[in-house]
Specification:
The complex is a heterodimer of chains A (305) and B (219). With 305 residues, chain A is of the alpha/beta class. Chain A contains 10 helices and 12 strands. The chains are: A alpha/beta (305), B mainly alpha (219). The complex binds NADP nicotinamide-adenine-dinucleotide phosphate. Chain A: Residues 47-293 form the NADP-dependent oxidoreductase domain.
């Protein structure tokens, strides 16, 4: 198979040949590929940082410092978005610890969630989260797993209107409640939706990703590695040499490149406890993104494994 | 269409890594050492109480168990475990409740005659010995650091095992009030260890099964 006929999407954002592809723009820092948040045009690097399990380390100072090193490497490598939730144990204070250590980089894009069924407690929960992070305000507040979304959203929109938030979103994962997600996307003026998407879990390709493009909703992708399972599953299989042209040098990068090459995706948020892994993951947002044909080939390859 | 709950796996409920959990246990143990020995001594008193028919001894045993539950609730669940698992605020409340129930049980032991059933009694003692003496060696077969050992009075699982053993061995009334929390804890713990793929998960399962088996034996 030759490469010549393959329309490759260049990381520089120029030389884009596929009209349906959203154009990744250059991120200021470190040359990571980025896509714009549709409603504002603000650029986000295609790879962010998740914190579920990995940053829940309690008051273990050794592990807190390890996480701080991951956060430092994330910003050094040009990252912006960190995603967390009050559900994630001590992850919020761990983020605060890591950010304080590097002096709260301006590039930080803070993505938090509100997760409480009694919505009268929403404001207090958001305030507690803010104190843990130590930021003046959150960039993005998402209704976690659609919990009481119909009551939380009006409160979040009014926080946004008064400048206490910049963006509003909703989340789900592992294919749950997609009908409801679509309903919210269609009827509410949300800026972000967060869903699970990876090379084996592609249900969102059918309706949610096209809807996001139509409604100009930014898409955050969670569980890019199915919590590491995909990497463990594939790591013994050879990485096909035909992905080398994209710059992917590991399974993690293969999997991430598949995700972020979908034009509706704004940012994937792999979680890690390791500095080498955070660097490797950010690297996936460099080089070249696979085009449609290569994406099909990637899918076929892993499905045959 | 699959029901939403059917999309969850055991691992979805685990909110920390095994590494974080066992480091937490190790740091807790190191901080307490050699206090664990005090509880082991206390537990031997409980064993002695079970073996004798003395009512005072049995009352002291209930009091010791109550202190053990209180200590686990306060020092482990509340101050340590809840830093990585928010559900432990409920766990703490349940352990405090059990501690209170065990104090009340002092009254009931006074009035209660020992279960006439000797197999049940011996089985209960066996469960206690298991919780006391076998539990701390679990890391050896689970392939963990010895510092992650769980001992009676400081860690919930052996405390629940010893308590269940003591209850089936010598409490003949109001058992239905005292058994649910330790049994539910063992189930929770077994599932947590299973989700962490820790070999030690069999221990709380065995404790549950043994307790039910002893409750069913008639003689
Ligand atoms: N409903 C929701 O809102 C929702 C649900 C699920 C997830 N999320 C968000 O999405 C984020 C990501 O999902 P996730 O944490 O479930 O799973 P994930 O990002 O798919 O996988 C994380 C696992 O992959 C491993 N890993 C990361 N980079 C690697 C690399 N380069 N090479 C090898 N292994 C690597 C990590 O282990 P190491 O530590 O060893 O690197 C970690 O165990 C979450 O952290 C959370 O922020 C949101």
């Amino acid at each position: 198979m030759t490469i010549t006929r393959r329309a490759v999407v260049r990381g520089l954002g120029i030389g884009m040949s596929m009209p349906f592809m959203a154009r990744p723009a250059m991120s200021q820092a470190a040359g990571l590929m980025a896509r714009s948040i549709p409603k504002t045009g603000e650029a986000l690097p295609l790879v962010g940082l998740g914190t579920w399990i990995t940053f829940n380390v309690g008051d273990d100072s050794v592990l807190m410092d390890e996480c701080a090193a991951v956060i430092a490497a994330f910003f050094e490598g040009g990252g912006r978005m960190i995603d967390c939730s009050p559900m994630y144990g001590s992850s919020q204070p761990t983020i605060g610890h890591g950010l304080a250590r590097i002096g709260y980089p301006e590039r930080l894009f803070s993505a938090e969630k509100v997760w409480i069924s009694d919505t009268s407690g929403g404001a207090a929960q958001i305030e507690a989260s803010r104190e843990h992070w130590g930021v003046a305000r959150f960039d993005l507040m998402q209704v976690h797993n659609l919990v009481s979304w119909d009551e939380h959203l009006p409160a979040l929109f009014s926080m946004k209107a008064s400048g206490r938030l910049r963006y509003v979103g909703i989340t789900t994962s592992e294919g749950r409640r997609h009908r409801e997600i679509e309903q919210v996307m269609a009827s509410e003026p949300i800026d972000f939706v967060q869903i699970t998407y990876n090379i084996l879990d592609r249900a969102v390709e059918e309706r949610i990703l096209p809807l996001a493009q139509e409604k100009r909703v930014a898409v955050i992708v969670n569980r890019p590695f199915r919590q590491g399972d995909l990497i463990r599953r594939f790591e013994d299989a050879p990485l096909p040499d035909w992905v080398a042209e994209t710059g992917a040098r590991s399974w993690a990068q293969f999997l991430l490149k598949f995700i972020i090459s979908h034009p509706a995706v704004t940012c994937a948020i792999p979680a890690t406890t390791r500095v080498d892994h955070v660097r490797e993951n950010l690297e996936a947002a460099r080089g070249i993104l696979p085009d449609e044909k290569l994406r099909k080939r990637m899918t076929a390859y892993v499905e045959a494994l | 269409m699959m029901a939403e709950w059917a999309t969850y796996t055991l691992a979805d409920f685990l909110m920390f890594s095994p590494r974080v959990y066992f480091r937490l246990v190790e740091r807790y143990n190191q901080g307490l050492w050699p206090f664990q020995l005090v509880f082991i001594a206390g537990a031997l008193a409980v064993l002695f109480a079970t073996a004798t028919d003395g009512r005072r001894a049995r009352a002291a045993a209930m009091a010791t168990l109550s202190v053990a539950w209180f200590f686990c609730a306060w020092q482990f669940l509340w101050l340590r475990y809840s830093t990585i698992n928010w559900a432990m605020s409920y766990g703490t409340a349940a352990f405090m409740l059990q501690s209170g129930l065990l104090l009340l049980a002092i009254l009931w032991t006074d009035r209660a005659a020992l279960p006439a059933n000797s197999l049940r009694r011996r089985g209960g003692i066996g469960l206690m010995v298991f919780g006391l003496l076998a539990y701390p060696f679990l890391p050896l077969i689970a392939g963990r650091a010895p510092a992650s050992a769980e001992s009676f009075g400081t860690m919930p699982d052996p405390t629940a095992a010893v308590t269940l053993g003591a209850l089936v061995a010598f409490l003949s009334q109001k058992l239905w009030l005292l058994l649910p929390i330790p049994l539910l804890w063992c189930a929770f713990s077994a599932l947590t260890l299973l989700a962490m793929e820790d070999f030690g998960a069999w221990a709380p399962f065995v404790v549950i099964l043994t307790t039910f088996a002893l409750l069913l034996v008639r003689r």
